[in-house]
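As a representative case, we now present a protein record of this kind.
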Amino acid sequence: MKKKMVMLFVGIFVVVSIFVVLLVGQYGSSSIFPDNTPTIFDAEVLEVHPDYLLVQGLENNDLNHRGTFTIPRNSLVPGSELADSISQGSRVQITYAGIVTETYPAHIYEVISIHFIE
């Protein structure tokens, strides 16, 4: 009797394990790895630093883009109008792809473009 119960539990464990592996393989990859689709949001520059900009997402953005973000300063083309005149209070539109860290402030690594907005 005891041997049958152990075999039943082992069998259930194997079936459940296979189901979990198949489920993670089907749905897990899309939530773990971003699809690198470009995303656009509007922000106000809070601080300008030599290596990065600190920006605050505007209220017209979706909820995920209303927070505070850092973006690498090397995203600005050296000598461009934007690089030369960006300052605290500037309003910009940021296009990015890839991962955004879940830290405070969030960090965007792959900035595609930054433009002034009114």
